[in-house]
TrEMBL record:
Pfam families: BPD_transp_1. The chain crosses the membrane at residues 51-73, 108-137, 149-171, 183-203, 224-246, 282-303. InterPro entries: MetI-like, MetI-like_sf. Residues 35-47 have a biased composition (Low complexity). Residues 1-10 have a biased composition (Pro residues). CDD domains: TM_PBP2. It comes from Streptomyces boncukensis. Coiled coil: none annotated. It is a multi-pass membrane protein. This is Carbohydrate ABC transporter permease. Belongs to the binding-protein-dependent transport system permease family. It is found in: Cell membrane.
Amino acid sequence: MQHPPPPGHRSPPSRKLLPAAGSGTPGRRPRRTGRAGSPARRPGSAARRPNYLAGLGSLVWLVVVALPLYVLVTATVQGRDAYFDRGPLSLPSEFTLDNYRRVLESDFFVYLGNTALVTLASAALAVALSVTVAYPVVRTRSRSSQRVFGLFLLGLAIPAQAVIIPVYLIITKLRLYDTLFGVILPTTAFTLPVCVLILVGALRDIDEELYESMALDGAGPVRILLQLVLPLSRAGISTVGVYASLQAWNGFLFPLILTQSEGNRVLTLGLYDYVGQFRVDVPALLAAVLLSIIPLFTVYLFARRQLINGLMGVGGR
């Protein structure tokens, strides 16, 4: 028989038993376990499996890209007879630089100078005209500017081959036939749609507050263009310059139709010097091709980052 506690006596506080781990008590997350009670791995901690299909595709693409380069280089260091006897995929039996010597002793430098002049002039005109078109399209946003922009976009759907006869007639009426300037004008005109599209995307990425702050400071449109738009759109301008240079350097149709004399030939037409009626000097032809791509490849090597950054802004706001 238990006696009641005396008055004023306090009983000690009772200890609460802590719940076991994994009992589902609110406020405490249960520990996840995998198979056989082992802790489960996080999604990022597991080792990634090798993608053999992607590796095989990369290997096939490497072969597709490297095989033409191999044929191009090996064919230029062997004679014409050895090239046709052993085949294009065989290693050269004897090393020779006669193909490069014959190319450099011909009119190669004349063709190279004409090509460089057409390329530089076309790129400069494309940059200047596309900047002056893209700037009012972005800033005014009126119906007339949007119609002009739509007209330039319509030029993307018109190939040069479809209008070569009207272009020939216009160049002949302007008395520019068989001149380099007669090649520069249509080459620039057919690169403008893509150049304007690139620069419109680049100029739309500039913050509107920058335009407003310069306008409040009293800057006019020309000053805003020179001090704000041009410095902040260097990536887009570089992209336009590289794209226009590629189109002009590799141009074939306009020089073929609009020039006639050998003094106004470009590199793409100069390659015909190694193609005869009954034979083709393939090693010398490929040596000329290899020498002709070195200058433009060097420019692209240093401007590839600006080209990629500029193309990323084409699908902007």
